[in-house]
UniProtKB/TrEMBL annotation:
This is Endothelin-converting enzyme 1. It comes from Scylla paramamosain (Mud crab). Its cofactor is Zn(2+). One of its GO terms (biological process) is protein processing. Belongs to the peptidase M13 family.
Length: 865
């Protein structure tokens, strides 16, 4: 490489600057070893100038004639003080000229002056070596800099900050998530408190409810919407059905018809309590009661017309053996209050409940009695009878219950204690009750002509029947009549008048009903709830027109299919399932139906009006309207006995109910309008929020078809043995882990633990549902790409998914609510969040929870994951 070198030579008279060009470096090191400044090495190295070697051997100086030459060594400069010492020499003297123009020290280097040889050669070589060090250092720095520049240009740019969603929907969602969280709690210590801690601190249980929860808040919002729709002026295109709903609401809100009517015999309640209807009530009219006119079956049939269930509860559901047809299901009855209130006499609190119940009975009888007489004897007999009734109905097996999110509780059967037969066969088996006469009386009220004796009936908990018959035989008819009529009055007490409604609310504020979610204190809430119960389809049509984007149903349909596909993947990876069983399970899942939003028929005003044809709603007394509405509902149910199941039209659930359901007899899930709202679903949300809430709910409901109840129903909704014995045992073994696990958790305030057997089905579905939803979301993200984060939440997408899921179960619970949990098929919210987290390896990975931490125990329960 060519190099330009500028040399400045200073003499006594002038300074000359000369620029020379050389082809290669002036000094070449042939070999170096060890320390460059080592004396031995310095003496042994050969330094060359062009092709001429400089040797350290002694030589004879040869005088030179002609023009003096300057060796090609660094010369002194006027700036010598700024150069390294090795490159500085003194000006030439006379000895230099005598040596042919060469420096005498240079001559000495050839052996003339040994002292000078050591001193000056070392000085020169040290300078040369320092120069080389600098050159090498600069070269290395240049190479390093070049490498850095190249790498910097080829290195991918640092990841950009995640995109943040700032739409109104995202801002609301972020605010809600943050408001409920307590970030001072470690998610690996108590995930429920981490996700819900602030919610628990900021809320209390309302006076008219057992809980304060996300779903309860949604119910409140739906009631507000119903009120607004019913309060709005009527429209020209309003359906007749909605007009009836509006009149029912107005009659409920019209307090001029709900005054205390103690002094008038024109009140509907007095008409009903007459010999021409239910019969004279001995408790208030002992002199008008005729023992010869009493017939138990006729009275039970009359009570059934108004949906008053006492000794028996009956439902009309698809046949367990042929789900395409309807049949009657008879369950044992229950007393008016929770059974343990009557039976646990050592509990002072329960004793107080019975005292309040007795006081309500006494005041009611005085108010409805024309003479205002209080009959203590009759009341004592009534309470004593109901206590005995509570004793024979104490067993929880095969008991009909509420629908609390899973219709299997009502529609499921207990094979060991249920009997399927015709009404004729039932009469022969249990002749003490005239079953045919009772059913015939009810059907004739609606002019429904059926061959009663050939109707299929399933009698559940058959051991209860002989105990009931014995109790009835041992009890005077007067006591039985008093009790049955009292149950009617109690059922409709809130609708008799304002005064009776206040009595009822006061009683319910003192005595909780574990079978009911709430007792409304606000009049408008009570009225809105009653209208939704009877005219839900008419309200849903208006709701769809005013509040619902029809495209949402299509999007949720896709959401269901994504979760269904994820569950297929889960089924296929179950190593305990035989391949044939996997195929059967996948087949059932494939054809599992889905009902989203509302039944299609409500879009037709004509079909909707037909649904309420024959039902007269007038703006007269509210109780009259309620009674007519209840009879109409019974009529619609009884008509099912004469037609096949219409899966498309028969929804079983009102559209504005805030919940989701699985119907095993139809092999379908139901997602009503009421739950297709924030915070469970919003089309403007990032999908990880929708999958973390509604997706989890969908996953839960799909798994119900394969839990300990749903697995008894085949793909057509018929009860059958479609599981092999070995596979059923494998299932039971894995399910037993959940029973043991959940049974160890206490229920606050009541001194009991979760019933792991009673809650098994929903516990299985909770655990599997979350995994199904997350797998479905990952598939969605692969097809659609990453999504923006929420503002203010410094968490990963999987972490936000889990927070969203946990906040479904944020709840503040009253003591009565915990009492309900002790008998409920669902676990308390804290366990629906925490135990699912504990069983999930994915959760532990997402939150980096060490093994052995509270949320990542070593032992986990798995089924359908």
């Amino acid at each position: 490489m060519e190099r330009n070198t500028t040399t400045t030579t200073t003499t006594a008279a002038t300074t000359t600057t000369t620029t020379t060009t050389t082809k290669k470096s002036k000094f070449r090191i042939f070999k170096t070893t060890g320390n460059f400044h080592n004396k031995e090495n310095s003496r042994s190295e050969l330094l060359t100038t062009n092709d001429e070697a400089i040797s350290l051997k002694p030589a004879t100086a040869t005088p030179t004639t002609g023009t003096p030459t300057t060796p090609n060594f660094p010369s002194t400069t006027s700036t010598a003080s700024s150069l390294p010492e090795a490159f500085v020499t003194e000006p030439p003297d006379a000895d230099t000229a005598a040596a042919g123009g060469r420096d005498k020290d240079l001559v000495a280097c050839n052996g003339i002056n040994g002292v000078k040889i050591v001193k000056n050669c070392r000085s020169r070589r040290r300078g040369e070596r320092c120069l080389w060090c600098n050159v090498v250092s600069l070269a290395l720095i240049s190479v390093a800099l070049l490498i850095y520049i190249v790498l910097d240009k080829t290195r991918p740019p640092p990841p950009a900050p995640p995109e943040v969603c700032t739409t109104p929907s995202c801002l609301r969602a972020a605010s809600r998530l943050l408001d409920r969280m307590d970030r001072s709690v470690s998610p690996c210590s108590d995930f429920y408190m981490f996700a819900c801690g602030n919610y628990l601190d900021a809320n209390v249980v309302p006076d008219d409810a057992l809980y304060r929860s996300a779903m309860q808040e949604m119910e409140e919002e739906v009631l507000v919407i119903i009120k607004k729709m019913l309060d709005a002026p009527s429209k020209s295109n309003e359906t007749e059905a909605f007009g009836k709903a509006r009149r029912l609401y107005h009659s409920c809100m019209n307090t001029s018809f709900t005054v205390h009517e103690k002094d008038t015999a024109d009140s509907p309640i007095f008409t009903l309590l007459s010999p021409d209807h239910l019969g004279a009530w001995p408790l208030i009219n002992p002199e008008k009661w005729d023992p010869n006119e009493f017939n138990l079956e006729d009275l039970l049939a009359k009570l059934a017309l108004y949906q008053v269930h006492t000794f028996f509860e009956f439902y009309i559901t698809p046949d367990e053996r042929n789900s395409s047809m309807y049949t009657l299901q008879f369950y044992k009855g229950t007393p008016a209050l929770a059974r343990n209130y009557y039976l646990n006499t050592s509990n002072d609190e329960y004793a107080g409940y019975i005292s309040a119940y007795r006081a309500l009975l006494e005041e009611t009888s005085v108010l409805l009695s024309h003479e205002g007489i209080l009959n203590h004897t009759h009341i004592d007999e009534l309470i004593a009878f109901e206590t005995k009734f509570a004793m024979i109905s104490d067993s929880r097996e095969c008991e009909a219950g509420g629908n609390g999110g899973n219709l299997t509780e009502t529609l499921d059967l207990d094979e060991e204690s249920s009997e399927r037969m015709t009404v004729l066969q039932l009469g022969q088996l249990v002749p003490d009750i005239a079953w045919g006469r009772m059913l015939r009386h009810t059907l004739q009220e609606f002019e429904i002509n059926l061959d009663v004796e050939s109707l299929i009936i399933t009698l559940h908990c058959s051991p209860y029947v002989p105990d009931l018959i014995k109790l009835i035989k041992d009890t005077p008819d007067r006591v039985i009549l008093n009790y049955l009529v009292w149950r009617f009055v109690l059922r409709y007490m809130p609708f008799i008048s304002n005064y009776f409604q206040q009595l009822w609310q006061q009683f319910r504020s003192e005595v909780p009903d574990p079978t009911e979610e709430r007792t409304y204190i606000s009049r408008w809430k009570e009225c809105a709830a009653v209208v939704n119960e009877g005219f839900g389809a008419a309200l849903a049509r208006n709701y769809v027109e005013e509040y619902y984007d029809s495209s949402i149903s299509f999007k949720i349909d896709n959401l269901v299919e994504e979760v269904r596909t994820a569950f297929h993947l889960v089924i296929n990876r179950q190593d305990w399932l035989e391949q044939e069983m996997k195929e059967v399970c996948n087949d059932k899942l494939d054809i599992m139906g889905k009902k989203i939003g509302y039944p299609e028929y409500i879009e037709s005003a004509e079909l909707l009006d037909e649904e309420f044809e024959g039902l007269e709603i007038l703006e007269d007394h509210f109780l009259n309207n309620i009674l007519r509405m209840k009879r109409h509902e019974v009529w619609k149910e009884l008509k099912k006995l004469s037609r096949p199941v219409d899966k498309k039209r028969d929804w079983l659930i009102q559209p504005l109910v805030v919940n989701a359901f699985h119907n095993p007899a139809a092999n379908e899930i139901i997602l009503p309008l009421g739950i297709l709202r924030e915070p469970f679903y919003n089309p403007g949300y990032p999908m990880y929020l929708n999958y973390g809430s509604l997706g989890v709910v969908i996953g839960h409901e799909l798994v119900h078809g394969f839990d300990n109840h749903g697995k008894r129903y085949d793909k057509h909704g018929n009860v059958s043995q479609w599981w092999s014995e070995d596979m059923a045992e494998q299932f039971t073994e894995r399910a037993a882990c959940f029973v043991e696990q959940y049974s160890q958790y206490p229920i606050e305030m009541v001194g009991k633990n979760v019933d792991g057997n009673e809650t098994l089905g929903d516990n299985i579905c909770d655990n599997a549902g979350v995994l199904n939803a997350w797998l479905a979301y990952t598939r969605w993200r692969e097809k659609n790409g990453a999504e923006p984060h929420l503002p203010g939440l410094n968490y990963t997408i999987p972490q936000i998914f889990f927070i969203t899921f946990a906040q479904i179960w944020c709840e503040v619970v009253s003591k009565e609510g915990y009492e309900k949990y002790s008998k409920d098929m669902h676990s308390p919210g804290v366990y629906r969040a925490n135990v699912v987290a504990q069983n999930s390896e994915f959760f532990a990975d997402v939150w980096d929870c060490p093994v052995g931490s509270p949320m990542n125990p070593e032992k986990k329960c798995h089924l359908w994951v």
